[in-house]
Amino acid sequence: METNVLPNETLTVLGPWLTATRRHRPHLTWSYALTNKDSHQANEQLTADLRSRTDLVLSDKTPEEGVPGGHAPEHFTLPDDLDGELRPWLSACYTTGSRTILAVGAHHSGALHDNFDCVDEIVVAVEKASPTGGLAAATTDLTPAGFELADISPGSTGVRVRLRRPRSCQARAGIAEPGMH
């Protein structure tokens, strides 16, 4: 039996699910647009681009299925709206079958501020003619402690900056790093 085949690719695909199942809390990605224009439109584009890889999308306080009808009803139900504390809500989401959640929009910063350790990944859409500093701001000023730059890729109107918790944090969550057995 061959082991450790394509470990980085495996973690890209299975990492969020493995993290969630070991912690009994969904993998939480927060995405928002850094824009001078209509951030609502930019956030809708982010949602459209990222929702297929998630169980739940939280645009406002009402969650919706990442891919409508994409889960078997006997294994997945939508949790109640996010009205109270984030941690108990995340536990409820896990219990109802969610392993990955996408929170879209800068307006979630208040709810996430006190629970920032619950955020596993951040995706920032930076438009071509973005606010002062643009890409430099997204990669330095907006990179919170505990995150590292994972990827910069082209988007429909600019670039996407993906920040993740370092692999060592994933290893503490029980996910083997490449080269570990």
Feature tags:
disordered C terminus; alpha/beta; single chain; 32% helix; 181 residues; globular; seven-stranded mixed β-sheet
Distance between the termini: 13 Å
Helix fraction, binned, reads 25-40%
Q: Can you count the helices?
A: 6
Main sheet strand line-up: 3-2-4-1-5-7-6
Strand content: 15-25%
Number of strands: 7
Uncertain spans, ≥5 residues at pLDDT below 50?
170-181
Query: Measured on Cα atoms, how large is the radius of gyration?
Result: 16 Å
Q: Which descriptor suits the 3D outline?
A: globular
**Structural class given helices, strands, pairing?**
alpha/beta
Largest sheet: 7 strands, mixed
Mean pLDDT: 79
Walk me through what this model shows.
With 181 residues, this protein is of the alpha/beta class. Helix content is 32%, strand content 23%. The protein contains 6 helices and 7 strands; from the N terminus they run αβαββαβαβαββα. The chain has helices at 7-23, 39-50, 86-95, 109-113, 134-141, 167-172, and strands spanning 27-34, 56-58, 63-65, 100-104, 119-127, 148-154, 158-164. It has a 7-stranded mixed sheet with strand order 3-2-4-1-5-7-6. A hairpin with a 3-residue loop joins strand 6 (148-154) and strand 7 (158-164). The longest helix has 17 residues, at 7-23. The chain is globular, with a radius of gyration of 16 Å. The model is unreliable at 170-181 (pLDDT under 50).
